[in-house]
Task: structure prediction
Amino acid sequence: MAQSQGWVKRYFKAFCKGFFVAVPVAVTFLDQVACVARVEGASMQPSLNPDGSRSSDVVLLNHWEVRNFKVHRGDIVSLVSPKNPGQKIIKRVIALEGDIIKTMGHKNRYVKVPRGHIWVEGDHHGHSFDSNSFGPVSLGLLHAHATHILWPPERWRRLESVLPPERLPVQTEDK
Amino acid sequence: MLRGVLGKTFRLVGYTIQYGCIAHCAFEYVGGVVMCSGPSMEPTIQNSDIVFAENLSRHFYGIQRGDIVIAKSPSDPKSNICKRVIGLEGDKMLTNSSSNFFKSHSYVPMGHVWLEGDNLQNSTDSRYYGPIPYGLIRGRIFFKIWPLSDFGFLRDSPNSHRFSDD
Result:
């Protein structure tokens, strides 16, 4: 009896030890280095979810790359939605701070992106809830940089950072 | 000999990673001790006071009017600001000082909050850059640790007339 109790105790101790190591390490890794997420919706067609609702892509989100809030024009990034803080959105960066951009359906025809903000748009113009409706977003809402499509396997590829030529900023501010 | 040194190094690295991760989880999800600087929250928080901040109410969407929060600055994501929540989404806010003859109002949009410092004369806040997204809020300050003479829960806003009526 005493022996079995000792065994339970030992087992419990080992479990606790492993638990308190594994959970914080896993959470920190997912928060700071990388995680995976499924993309929902049609706003990034044709880059993501090209088949519409029949299949949804799984992407790799790299947190480490954006730890200093450094993004480039054309990158696909995920952000916390400014309208609904519980939701993440995935969009393409069109303009950085200081750029002047010609908008599509925003209240102003031309917008200068303010300091610490970026202009994001979905690739599927007209079917995307993006900066054309909520304006430039603060860099503090930046979540991660989407670098690869992981699933489905036949679509495995790197997500290239390309800016649609017709969406080039009117005037850029390069230091 | 070599094996002992290597084993020791590995164990040290492992412990460092483990405690670093535990610290990250605590600061990210539970809360921590923060030092506030700047005059914008006087007289509630003086320059270089040390306060306790908790992050749980942000994760459970428990931020209310009158809470003092730490948020990422909308114009510089690397710096933090410390302000009081004056309005939540849908509130009608006075965008200029109420002593002005011409009053202008605006509504706080969905998913945003209206922040103001307690020191209305010397604070760069939502009256200047507009409502900020809820996603920028990092945590809620509720307890002051230093200076000891002011130890305890934080006082209510001295500018209660700034809160919206409804």
